[in-house]
Amino acid sequence: PQAGAVGTGASQYSGTVSLNSTTSSKGFSLVDSVRGGSSTVDLQHRTGGKGVVFTDADNVWGDGTPGHNQTAAVEAAYGAAQTWDFYKNVLNRNGIKNDGRAPVSRVHYGNAYQNAYWDDQAFAITYGDGANNQHPLTQLDVAGHEFSHGVTSATAGLQYSGESGGLNEATSDIFGTAVEWNANNPQDKGDYLLGEKIDIFGNGKPLRYQDRPSKDGRGSADYWSAAVGNLDVHYSSGVANHFFYLLAEGSGAKDINGVHYDSPTVDGSTVTGIGRDKAVQIWYKALTSYFTSTTDYHGAREGTLKAAADLYGANSAEVDAVDAAWTAVNVQG
Ligand code: ASN
Ligand code: ZN
Protein backbone atom coordinates (compact mmCIF):
# COMPACT_ATOMS: atom_id res chain seq x y z
CA PRO A 1 0.00 0.00 0.00
CA GLN A 2 1.09 3.54 -0.68
CA ALA A 3 1.56 5.84 2.26
CA GLY A 4 2.47 9.46 2.75
CA ALA A 5 6.05 10.22 3.70
CA VAL A 6 8.08 13.33 4.33
CA GLY A 7 11.30 13.78 2.41
CA THR A 8 13.81 16.55 2.03
CA GLY A 9 15.00 18.35 -1.09
CA ALA A 10 17.80 20.69 -2.14
CA SER A 11 16.36 23.39 -4.37
CA GLN A 12 18.21 25.93 -6.51
CA TYR A 13 16.45 29.09 -5.31
CA SER A 14 14.75 28.20 -2.00
CA GLY A 15 17.36 26.29 -0.02
CA THR A 16 16.64 22.94 1.59
CA VAL A 17 12.93 22.24 1.82
CA SER A 18 10.63 19.60 3.21
CA LEU A 19 8.64 17.65 0.58
CA ASN A 20 5.68 15.34 0.90
CA SER A 21 6.05 12.11 -1.05
CA THR A 22 4.31 8.75 -1.31
CA THR A 23 5.86 5.32 -0.87
CA SER A 24 6.09 3.31 -4.11
CA SER A 25 7.82 0.30 -5.61
CA LYS A 26 10.78 2.58 -6.43
CA GLY A 27 10.96 3.79 -2.85
CA PHE A 28 9.23 7.16 -3.02
CA SER A 29 7.22 9.12 -5.59
CA LEU A 30 6.95 12.89 -5.71
CA VAL A 31 3.22 12.90 -5.05
CA ASP A 32 1.76 14.98 -2.23
CA SER A 33 -1.26 13.13 -0.90
CA VAL A 34 -1.92 15.86 1.66
CA ARG A 35 -2.47 18.45 -1.08
CA GLY A 36 -4.88 16.88 -3.53
CA GLY A 37 -2.42 14.31 -4.88
CA SER A 38 -0.24 16.99 -6.42
CA SER A 39 2.40 15.25 -8.53
CA THR A 40 5.67 16.41 -10.09
CA VAL A 41 6.67 14.83 -13.39
CA ASP A 42 9.72 14.79 -15.65
CA LEU A 43 9.05 15.75 -19.28
CA GLN A 44 12.61 14.63 -20.07
CA HIS A 45 13.12 17.57 -22.44
CA ARG A 46 10.17 16.57 -24.61
CA THR A 47 7.45 19.07 -25.54
CA GLY A 48 4.52 16.70 -25.20
CA GLY A 49 3.30 13.63 -23.41
CA LYS A 50 2.43 13.12 -19.78
CA GLY A 51 5.98 12.73 -18.50
CA VAL A 52 7.15 10.41 -15.75
CA VAL A 53 6.51 10.94 -12.05
CA PHE A 54 9.76 11.55 -10.20
CA THR A 55 10.85 8.70 -7.95
CA ASP A 56 13.69 8.30 -5.50
CA ALA A 57 15.12 5.52 -3.36
CA ASP A 58 15.93 7.43 -0.17
CA ASN A 59 13.51 10.39 -0.17
CA VAL A 60 16.41 12.87 -0.37
CA TRP A 61 15.89 14.83 -3.59
CA GLY A 62 18.11 17.01 -5.80
CA ASP A 63 21.42 18.65 -4.91
CA GLY A 64 20.67 22.37 -5.29
CA THR A 65 22.25 22.62 -8.74
CA PRO A 66 20.63 22.46 -12.18
CA GLY A 67 23.01 19.61 -13.02
CA HIS A 68 20.97 17.23 -10.87
CA ASN A 69 17.80 16.22 -12.67
CA GLN A 70 15.71 16.33 -9.49
CA THR A 71 16.61 19.88 -8.45
CA ALA A 72 14.00 21.56 -10.66
CA ALA A 73 11.47 19.00 -9.43
CA VAL A 74 12.22 19.92 -5.83
CA GLU A 75 11.60 23.58 -6.58
CA ALA A 76 8.40 22.89 -8.53
CA ALA A 77 7.00 20.59 -5.83
CA TYR A 78 7.86 23.15 -3.17
CA GLY A 79 6.19 25.90 -5.22
CA ALA A 80 3.06 23.82 -5.73
CA ALA A 81 2.85 23.06 -2.01
CA GLN A 82 3.40 26.67 -0.95
CA THR A 83 0.86 27.93 -3.47
CA TRP A 84 -1.68 25.33 -2.38
CA ASP A 85 -1.19 26.35 1.25
CA PHE A 86 -1.45 30.06 0.42
CA TYR A 87 -4.82 29.59 -1.29
CA LYS A 88 -6.08 27.31 1.48
CA ASN A 89 -4.86 29.22 4.51
CA VAL A 90 -5.00 32.83 3.33
CA LEU A 91 -7.89 32.78 0.83
CA ASN A 92 -9.83 29.74 2.04
CA ARG A 93 -9.73 28.22 -1.46
CA ASN A 94 -9.32 24.48 -1.89
CA GLY A 95 -7.22 24.33 -5.05
CA ILE A 96 -7.65 25.91 -8.45
CA LYS A 97 -11.31 25.02 -8.87
CA ASN A 98 -12.02 25.00 -5.13
CA ASP A 99 -12.74 21.28 -5.44
CA GLY A 100 -9.59 19.86 -3.87
CA ARG A 101 -8.00 18.76 -7.15
CA ALA A 102 -4.32 19.56 -7.48
CA PRO A 103 -2.53 20.47 -10.70
CA VAL A 104 0.41 18.51 -12.06
CA SER A 105 3.82 20.21 -12.06
CA ARG A 106 5.88 19.32 -15.15
CA VAL A 107 9.58 20.18 -15.34
CA HIS A 108 12.31 19.87 -18.00
CA TYR A 109 10.04 20.97 -20.85
CA GLY A 110 11.94 21.15 -24.13
CA ASN A 111 15.51 22.36 -24.39
CA ALA A 112 16.62 25.60 -22.69
CA TYR A 113 13.00 26.78 -22.84
CA GLN A 114 12.80 30.20 -21.17
CA ASN A 115 9.23 30.24 -19.97
CA ALA A 116 6.63 28.55 -17.80
CA TYR A 117 2.93 28.28 -18.48
CA TRP A 118 -0.43 27.13 -17.23
CA ASP A 119 -2.61 24.78 -19.32
CA ASP A 120 -6.28 24.37 -18.36
CA GLN A 121 -6.75 21.17 -20.39
CA ALA A 122 -3.70 19.40 -19.00
CA PHE A 123 -4.44 20.99 -15.60
CA ALA A 124 -0.70 21.46 -15.34
CA ILE A 125 2.02 23.97 -14.71
CA THR A 126 4.92 23.44 -17.12
CA TYR A 127 8.43 24.79 -16.58
CA GLY A 128 11.34 25.21 -18.97
CA ASP A 129 14.95 24.94 -17.84
CA GLY A 130 15.93 28.45 -18.98
CA ALA A 131 19.15 29.54 -20.72
CA ASN A 132 21.65 26.69 -21.16
CA ASN A 133 19.28 24.56 -19.07
CA GLN A 134 20.83 26.30 -16.05
CA HIS A 135 18.09 28.76 -15.03
CA PRO A 136 14.86 26.81 -14.55
CA LEU A 137 11.73 28.94 -14.41
CA THR A 138 10.67 27.17 -11.22
CA GLN A 139 10.99 30.04 -8.72
CA LEU A 140 8.28 30.21 -6.08
CA ASP A 141 6.66 33.41 -7.36
CA VAL A 142 6.49 31.93 -10.86
CA ALA A 143 4.79 28.80 -9.48
CA GLY A 144 2.28 31.06 -7.74
CA HIS A 145 1.85 33.06 -10.96
CA GLU A 146 1.09 30.03 -13.13
CA PHE A 147 -1.19 28.34 -10.58
CA SER A 148 -3.09 31.62 -10.34
CA HIS A 149 -3.77 31.56 -14.09
CA GLY A 150 -5.78 28.44 -13.30
CA VAL A 151 -7.65 30.24 -10.54
CA THR A 152 -8.46 33.19 -12.81
CA SER A 153 -9.67 30.80 -15.49
CA ALA A 154 -11.93 29.06 -12.95
CA THR A 155 -13.35 32.33 -11.59
CA ALA A 156 -13.49 35.65 -13.46
CA GLY A 157 -12.24 34.09 -16.70
CA LEU A 158 -10.53 37.33 -17.72
CA GLN A 159 -9.90 37.19 -21.49
CA TYR A 160 -6.18 37.05 -22.26
CA SER A 161 -6.02 40.13 -24.50
CA GLY A 162 -6.61 43.85 -24.19
CA GLU A 163 -7.17 45.36 -20.74
CA SER A 164 -8.76 42.20 -19.34
CA GLY A 165 -5.58 40.37 -20.37
CA GLY A 166 -3.48 42.85 -18.43
CA LEU A 167 -5.70 42.27 -15.40
CA ASN A 168 -5.34 38.50 -15.88
CA GLU A 169 -1.54 38.81 -15.93
CA ALA A 170 -1.47 41.19 -12.96
CA THR A 171 -3.67 38.82 -10.96
CA SER A 172 -1.01 36.15 -11.45
CA ASP A 173 1.78 38.53 -10.46
CA ILE A 174 -0.13 39.76 -7.40
CA PHE A 175 -0.77 36.26 -6.06
CA GLY A 176 2.69 35.05 -7.13
CA THR A 177 4.16 37.77 -4.96
CA ALA A 178 1.74 36.93 -2.16
CA VAL A 179 2.76 33.26 -2.26
CA GLU A 180 6.40 34.27 -1.92
CA TRP A 181 5.65 36.49 1.10
CA ASN A 182 3.48 33.81 2.68
CA ALA A 183 6.17 31.11 2.34
CA ASN A 184 8.51 33.16 4.52
CA ASN A 185 11.53 31.35 3.07
CA PRO A 186 14.84 32.88 4.20
CA GLN A 187 16.48 32.00 0.85
CA ASP A 188 13.70 33.65 -1.18
CA LYS A 189 12.37 36.51 0.89
CA GLY A 190 9.19 38.37 0.10
CA ASP A 191 9.47 41.16 -2.46
CA TYR A 192 7.53 42.99 -5.15
CA LEU A 193 9.62 41.57 -7.96
CA LEU A 194 8.79 38.62 -10.22
CA GLY A 195 11.32 35.93 -10.99
CA GLU A 196 14.22 37.83 -9.43
CA LYS A 197 16.25 34.69 -8.67
CA ILE A 198 16.10 33.18 -12.15
CA ASP A 199 18.35 35.70 -13.91
CA ILE A 200 16.19 35.26 -16.96
CA PHE A 201 17.91 38.07 -18.91
CA GLY A 202 21.44 37.19 -17.82
CA ASN A 203 21.92 40.65 -16.31
CA GLY A 204 20.65 39.91 -12.81
CA LYS A 205 17.38 41.79 -13.30
CA PRO A 206 13.97 40.41 -12.39
CA LEU A 207 11.29 39.70 -14.95
CA ARG A 208 8.93 42.36 -13.56
CA TYR A 209 8.75 45.15 -10.95
CA GLN A 210 5.50 46.01 -9.20
CA ASP A 211 6.59 49.26 -7.52
CA ARG A 212 7.32 50.90 -10.86
CA PRO A 213 6.75 48.47 -13.73
CA SER A 214 8.64 50.60 -16.27
CA LYS A 215 11.86 49.74 -14.41
CA ASP A 216 11.91 46.67 -16.66
CA GLY A 217 12.93 48.90 -19.59
CA ARG A 218 10.77 46.72 -21.84
CA GLY A 219 7.63 48.80 -22.02
CA SER A 220 5.53 47.88 -18.99
CA ALA A 221 3.00 50.59 -18.21
CA ASP A 222 3.13 52.46 -14.91
CA TYR A 223 -0.15 54.31 -15.56
CA TRP A 224 -3.35 53.78 -17.48
CA SER A 225 -3.77 55.44 -20.88
CA ALA A 226 -6.06 54.68 -23.79
CA ALA A 227 -3.15 52.83 -25.43
CA VAL A 228 -2.67 50.32 -22.60
CA GLY A 229 -5.10 47.83 -24.08
CA ASN A 230 -2.91 47.51 -27.18
CA LEU A 231 0.13 46.35 -25.22
CA ASP A 232 1.19 42.76 -24.66
CA VAL A 233 -0.66 41.54 -21.56
CA HIS A 234 2.64 41.25 -19.65
CA TYR A 235 3.10 45.02 -20.09
CA SER A 236 -0.49 46.24 -19.67
CA SER A 237 -0.40 44.32 -16.38
CA GLY A 238 1.90 47.06 -15.11
CA VAL A 239 -1.00 49.37 -14.25
CA ALA A 240 -2.58 46.84 -11.88
CA ASN A 241 0.76 45.68 -10.49
CA HIS A 242 1.53 49.31 -9.68
CA PHE A 243 -1.94 49.77 -8.15
CA PHE A 244 -1.35 46.73 -5.95
CA TYR A 245 2.05 47.95 -4.75
CA LEU A 246 0.65 51.40 -3.94
CA LEU A 247 -2.34 49.92 -2.12
CA ALA A 248 -0.14 47.62 -0.04
CA GLU A 249 2.91 49.79 0.61
CA GLY A 250 2.02 53.34 -0.36
CA SER A 251 3.85 55.78 -2.62
CA GLY A 252 7.44 56.94 -2.40
CA ALA A 253 10.73 55.25 -1.61
CA LYS A 254 11.55 52.58 0.94
CA ASP A 255 13.64 49.47 1.47
CA ILE A 256 11.99 46.16 2.36
CA ASN A 257 14.03 43.00 3.00
CA GLY A 258 17.03 44.70 1.44
CA VAL A 259 15.29 45.65 -1.81
CA HIS A 260 14.84 49.30 -2.76
CA TYR A 261 11.44 50.43 -4.03
CA ASP A 262 10.47 53.79 -5.41
CA SER A 263 6.83 54.03 -6.38
CA PRO A 264 5.64 57.25 -8.02
CA THR A 265 2.08 58.46 -8.60
CA VAL A 266 0.83 59.98 -11.86
CA ASP A 267 -0.11 63.29 -10.25
CA GLY A 268 2.42 63.57 -7.43
CA SER A 269 -0.23 62.61 -4.87
CA THR A 270 0.66 60.60 -1.78
CA VAL A 271 -0.92 57.16 -1.25
CA THR A 272 -0.85 55.55 2.18
CA GLY A 273 -0.66 51.76 2.05
CA ILE A 274 -3.02 49.45 3.92
CA GLY A 275 -0.60 46.49 4.02
CA ARG A 276 -0.15 43.44 1.88
CA ASP A 277 -2.65 41.20 3.61
CA LYS A 278 -5.63 43.49 3.10
CA ALA A 279 -4.57 44.33 -0.46
CA VAL A 280 -4.48 40.60 -1.26
CA GLN A 281 -7.94 40.02 0.25
CA ILE A 282 -9.41 42.91 -1.72
CA TRP A 283 -7.97 41.68 -5.03
CA TYR A 284 -9.19 38.12 -4.44
CA LYS A 285 -12.68 39.25 -3.46
CA ALA A 286 -12.86 41.43 -6.57
CA LEU A 287 -11.59 38.60 -8.79
CA THR A 288 -14.05 36.05 -7.46
CA SER A 289 -17.12 38.28 -6.90
CA TYR A 290 -16.98 41.16 -9.37
CA PHE A 291 -14.57 40.64 -12.28
CA THR A 292 -15.88 38.98 -15.44
CA SER A 293 -14.25 37.88 -18.69
CA THR A 294 -14.42 41.41 -20.10
CA THR A 295 -13.55 43.53 -17.07
CA ASP A 296 -11.33 46.45 -18.06
CA TYR A 297 -9.35 48.85 -15.87
CA HIS A 298 -12.37 50.99 -15.14
CA GLY A 299 -14.29 47.87 -14.12
CA ALA A 300 -11.38 46.73 -11.95
CA ARG A 301 -11.54 50.02 -10.11
CA GLU A 302 -15.26 49.54 -9.47
CA GLY A 303 -14.88 45.87 -8.52
CA THR A 304 -12.09 46.47 -6.02
CA LEU A 305 -14.00 49.38 -4.46
CA LYS A 306 -16.98 47.07 -3.95
CA ALA A 307 -14.73 44.34 -2.59
CA ALA A 308 -13.12 46.72 -0.11
CA ALA A 309 -16.56 47.95 0.98
CA ASP A 310 -17.73 44.34 1.47
CA LEU A 311 -14.68 43.45 3.52
CA TYR A 312 -14.00 46.61 5.52
CA GLY A 313 -17.11 48.81 5.28
CA ALA A 314 -18.31 51.45 2.84
CA ASN A 315 -16.76 54.31 4.78
CA SER A 316 -13.51 52.53 5.60
CA ALA A 317 -9.97 53.78 5.17
CA GLU A 318 -9.45 50.71 2.96
CA VAL A 319 -12.04 51.95 0.45
CA ASP A 320 -10.37 55.37 0.45
CA ALA A 321 -6.98 53.73 -0.17
CA VAL A 322 -8.31 51.71 -3.11
CA ASP A 323 -9.73 54.91 -4.58
CA ALA A 324 -6.46 56.79 -4.07
CA ALA A 325 -4.30 54.00 -5.49
CA TRP A 326 -6.34 53.73 -8.72
CA THR A 327 -6.31 57.50 -9.12
CA ALA A 328 -2.53 57.40 -8.65
CA VAL A 329 -2.20 55.04 -11.64
CA ASN A 330 -4.55 57.20 -13.71
CA VAL A 331 -7.60 54.97 -13.48
CA GLN A 332 -10.17 57.63 -12.61
CA GLY A 333 -13.66 57.24 -11.21
N1 ASN B 1 4.84 32.61 -18.51
C1 ASN B 1 3.85 33.24 -19.30
C2 ASN B 1 2.71 33.65 -18.40
O1 ASN B 1 2.28 32.90 -17.56
C3 ASN B 1 3.35 32.39 -20.37
C4 ASN B 1 2.39 33.16 -21.19
O2 ASN B 1 2.74 34.05 -21.91
N2 ASN B 1 1.13 32.87 -21.02
O3 ASN B 1 2.21 34.72 -18.54
ZN1 ZN C 1 1.14 34.86 -16.84
UniProtKB/TrEMBL annotation:
Obligatory cofactor(s): Zn(2+)
Peptidase M4 C-terminal domain sequence ranges: 156-331
Top-level taxon: Bacteria
Location in or out of the cell: Secreted
Domain Peptidase M4: 7-153
Primary localisation category: secreted
Keywords: Hydrolase, Metal-binding, Metalloprotease, Protease, Secreted, Signal, Zinc
EC numbers: 3.4.24.-
Function, in words: Extracellular zinc metalloprotease.
Family: Belongs to the peptidase M4 family.
Protein name (Swiss-Prot/TrEMBL): Neutral metalloproteinase
Organism: Streptomyces wedmorensis
